[in-house]
Amino acid sequence: MPPEVPATPAAPEAPTLPETPEVPEAPSLPEVPVIPEGSRAESGQEGEGVIVPKDEIDADLLPVFLEEGRDGFPQMSAVLRAWVDQPANVSHPQALLRLLHTLKGSARMAGAMTLGQHLHDMETRAENVMHLGSPSALTIEDLLVRYDHASLLFEQLQHPAAPMQAGDAAPAEQAQAPSGEAAQQNMEQAAQPVVLAPLMPLREDLAAPRLPAVRPAAAPAMPAAPAQLVRVRADILDRLVNQAGEVSIARSKLENEVGSLRQSLSELTDNVTRLRDQLREIEMQAESQIASRMAAAGEREFDPLEFDRFTRLQELTRMMAESVSDVGSVHHNLARTLDSASTGLSSQARLTRELQQDLMRVRMVQFASISERLYRVTRQAAKEVDKRVNLDIRGSGVEIDRGVLERMTGPFEHLLRNAVAHGVESREARRAAGKSETGELLVEVRQEGNEVVIRFCDDGHGLDVARIRDKAVRLGLLGHDGDASDEDVRDLIFHPGFSTAEEVTELAGRGIGMDVVRSEAAALGGRVSTWSEPGKGTHFTIHLPLTLAVTQVVLVGSGGRTYAVPSVLVEQVQQLKSHALAGAYNDGAVVWQGQRVPLHYLPALLGDRQSSPVGQQYTPLMIIKSGNDRVAIHVDEVIGNREVVVKNIGPQLARMTGIAGATVLGSGDIVLILNPVPLSMRQAQELLRAPRQTPSDAPDNMGAVADLVHPATPQAGAPAPVQGLRTQHIVMVVDDSLTVRRVTQRLLSREGYQVVLAKDGVDALEHLQSVTPDVLLVDIEMPRMDGFDFTRNVRGDERTRGIPIVMITSRTAAKHRNYAMELGVNAYLGKPYREDELLGLIAGYVGRVEV
C-alpha cells in the first residue's frame, strides 16, 4: 500500500536519541558537537544550500520566540538601514550586536538551531565589520543579505504547515528541511514519555501508537490558542488597569477640591464667629445708648420721632442677628454635606483600591511560568561548554507582574549563561578543589513588601577581582595604578562590552549581557547588587517592583516643582541643621553609617541651574540606594509617601537617564518618577569629560544651594559658608485677613521669594519652630495673639531676635507707630501699602541688589 510506505522512515527517528544527552552521559556528549562542528564552516558561507544544524523545536517555547522575533527582526532591519545611512556611527553596530545576541539565544532556547547558528555567524560577521571603523556599503550589503536569509528562516518557523503538504520525504529533508524537522519535532515530543525505553518507539511507531504520536502533536498546539487569547486579554487588562488608574486620579482631584472647600469653610467659620462678636458689640452699644439717652431725657416727654429712631436701630441689629444666624445655618448644612461627601469619597477610594488590587492579581503570573525556559537555557549552556550543572529554582510560586517578568526573562537567561560559562568551574577544576563535578545553580524568588527579590547563586570560583582589574586597566576603564576598591572593580562587569573571556564563543566573550541585566532592572525601577567570595561562588540579587501599574513613591518638593522617588530606593530621610548642610556642601559629601555619600541638590541633577533651595533651620536629606551605589539628595520638602499609578512616558523621555516613569497627582500635576543614582553617575561622567573647573564654576555644577546659616545669627563653630551659593529667601506674612495674605503672597512669589503664611501670632510662632524667615511682615490686630505680642516674643527669642520685622497695619496713628518702634519693629507701613516701597524694604533687608 503506497500510502504506508512513508511510515517506514520511522527508523530515522533515532535522531531523537540525541535529546538524551541532556542527562549528562559521557558517551553521548562527544557525539552532539560532531554534526554542528562540520556544518558551522558550511553554514558560515552562504549558498551551500545544505543546512546541517538539527532543529529540536520546543512546541511550548516556540510561540514565545516567535512573538519576540516579530519585534526583533524589524528592529534589526531598521538598525541595518540606519547603519547604511550612517556608517561611522558606532551606536548602530552596537545595537545590532545586542539584537543578534538576544535573538540568537532565544532561537536556540526554542530549539531553532539552524536560525540560532546563522544569527551567531551573522553576529561574528557584524562584530568584525564594526572593528573596521567605517565599513563600506558592500560590507553592510553583505550583512543585509545575511539578514534576508535569517528572515527567511524565521518565516519558515512561523509557517511550518505549508511544506508539510508535500508529503514526500525526500523534499522534506532537502529543499524543505525545516518542514521535515517540524514534523519530526511532533513525533519527538510524543516519544519523550518513553525515552527510558529507546527500543520501544521503533515497534510502536509501526503500529497503532503511530496515530497517537501525531494526535498529541495537535494537542500541544491547543494551548497556543489560549495563549493568543491570553495575550489579547492582557492588553484589555492593561487598558482596564489604566482606566482604574484614571478613576483613582479623578477621585484624588475630588479629594483635593473637597479639601479646599473644607479650608474655605473653616475660614467662613472664623468670619461668622467674628461677625457674631461684632454684632453683639453693636447690640450692646445700641442698648447702652438708648438707656443713657432715656435717662438723660428725665421727666420731659420723650420725642416720638427719637423713640422711632432707637426702635429702628434695635430692629436693624435684630435683623442682622437673624441674618448671621441664617448664615450659621447654611454653614452648618455645608459642613454636614461636606462630611457626607468626604465619607462617600472614602468609600469610593476603598472600592477603587479593591478594584485595582483585583486587576493587579489578574495581571500577575507565577515565576514558574518561565522555569522550564530557564532549565532549558541551563542545559544548553552546560552542553556547549561540557560542564555538569544542576539548577534549583525555589519560590517559583511567587507571582510577579506579567510586564516585569516578560521584560526580565532575557536578563535572567543572561545571568544563567554567565554563571555556566564564567562561574562554574570545569569538572577537573572542581575535582581538584574538592567539589562535586556537578555545579550548583540556585534561583531563589521571594516577595518583600512591594518588591520581588530574585537571587542567582552559583558555587563556582567567584569573581576574579585581579583579572577584572587587569582587563579594566587595559581597556582604560581604570588608571594604571588601579586605584579602586574591590567593590568598584566588581561593579565593572556591568560596563557595556566588558568581558574577561580571552576568546569569543557562542556562549560568552562579547561583553553583552551583564549591562543588559542592570539597565533593564533600572528601567523597571529596580536594582542589582553583587556578592562574591573566592572559591565559594557569586550571588546576584535583583530587586524588582511587584507591579508596573501601581507603585509606592516618596513625593518631594524642590526648586518649586514636585518629583517622585520610588520608595524602595529610599534608605533614610534625615533632617540636617543649616550649618551641617553647609559643611556637607563644602566637603562635597555626607557621612552616613561610616561611609562618604556624594551630596547633590535634586534640581541640579536635572540640569536646572536657576532653582535655589529654601533656607530653613532643618533641611531634609534623602539617602538613595540603587544597586551598590548611594547618593544623598538635598530637597526642599518631603511631602510624603503615596501610592501612584505609573504612566508611560513615551519614547522621548524613556531614553533619558534616571527617569523611571511619570504619574498624575490629584491636582492634575504631572510628576516625574526619578532614580537619582543614574543621574548622579551621569553628572560625574560629564565632570570627568569636562575641562577642570575654576572655583567660581563649581557652585553651579554643585547646585544652587546657599549658606543656610542666617547672617544675623551665626552659630559658634559653624563651618564657613558655601561660597558663591545662593538660597531662596523666605518672607513670612502674618495677617488675619485672607485677602491680604493672598495678595501679598502673589506679589512676593512673583519677585522670587518663598512665602510662608500665618493667620495670627500663635500660628506664626508655630511656623518659626521649623522655618527661619529672612523678613517678617506683621499686622497688629489679630485674634489669639496680636502683632505687638508677637513682636515681643520674636525679639525675646535669641534665635529669632535678628529677623527684620515690617509692620503693616491700618492703625497709622503716631502712638501705635512709636509703640511698635519701641518693641523693635524695623519699618512701619500703613494699609494699603505701596508695592515698590515694600519690595524695596525687603530687598534691603535680605541684601538683594535692586535692578
UniProtKB/TrEMBL annotation:
Residues 7-26 have a biased composition (Low complexity). GO terms for cellular component: cytoplasm. SMART domains: CheW, H-kinase_dim, HATPase_c, REC. Residues 350-548 form the Histidine kinase domain. Residues 1-51, 163-189 are annotated as: Disordered. GO terms for molecular function: phosphorelay sensor kinase activity. GO terms for biological process: chemotaxis. Keywords: Coiled coil, Kinase, Phosphoprotein, Transferase, Two-component regulatory system. Residues 730-846 form the Response regulatory domain. Pfam families: CheW, HATPase_c, Hpt, Response_reg. Its EC number is 2.7.13.3. It is an enzyme of class 2 (transferase). Residues 54-167 form the HPt domain. The keyword NAD does not apply. The modification 4-aspartylphosphate is found at D779. The modification Phosphohistidine is found at H101. Residues 237-285 form a coiled coil. InterPro entries: Bact_Chemotaxis_CheA, CheA-like_dim, CheA-like_homodim_sf, CheW-like_dom_sf, CheW-lke_dom, CheY-like_superfamily, HATPase_C_sf, HATPase_dom. Residues 550-685 form the CheW-like domain. Involved in the transmission of sensory signals from the chemoreceptors to the flagellar motors. CheA is autophosphorylated; it can transfer its phosphate group to either CheB or CheY. This is Chemotaxis protein CheA. The lineage of its organism: Bacteria, Pseudomonadati, Pseudomonadota, Betaproteobacteria, Burkholderiales.
